[in-house]
């Protein structure tokens, strides 16, 4: 005997999964946008802004949170 599920949805994910997936994607975009910049005007210039806290601490943390959220959104099951 097969046990029938009352929720026979043709979609793999639920609305909550998609919301979490989109939120995680936005976190990834924000993290990569925060990482932009800090380069010199030409190949011989050095700009100290490449070592700012925003680029080496904050944005990698936001990016890692986005990836963790994506994994959680994929594996989350109601």
Explain what the structure shows.
The protein is mainly α and 78 residues long. The chain is built from two helices and no strands. α1 (15-35) runs antiparallel to α2 (53-75). The two termini are 24 Å apart. It is rod-shaped. The longest helix has 23 residues, at 53-75. The protein has helices at 15-35, 53-75. The mean pLDDT is 87.
Helix content: 55-70%
Q: Which value, in Å, is the CA radius of gyration?
A: 20 Å
- End-to-end distance, in Å? 24 Å
Number of helices, where a helix is a run of at least 4 consecutive DSSP H or I residues:
2
Number of strands: 0
Short description:
The protein is built from two helices and no strands.
Layout of secondary structure:
Blueprint: H1 15-35, H2 53-75
Identify the notable features of this structure and list them briefly.
78 residues, mainly alpha
């Amino acid at each position: 005997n097969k046990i029938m599920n009352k929720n026979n949805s043709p979609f793999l994910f639920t609305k909550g999964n998609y919301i979490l997936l989109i939120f995680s994607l936005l976190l990834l975009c924000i993290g990569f946008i925060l990482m932009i910049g800090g380069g010199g005007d030409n190949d011989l210039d050095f700009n100290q802004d490449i070592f700012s806290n925003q680029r080496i601490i904050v944005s990698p943390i936001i990016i890692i949170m986005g990836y963790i959220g994506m994994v959680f959104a994929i594996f989350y099951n109601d």
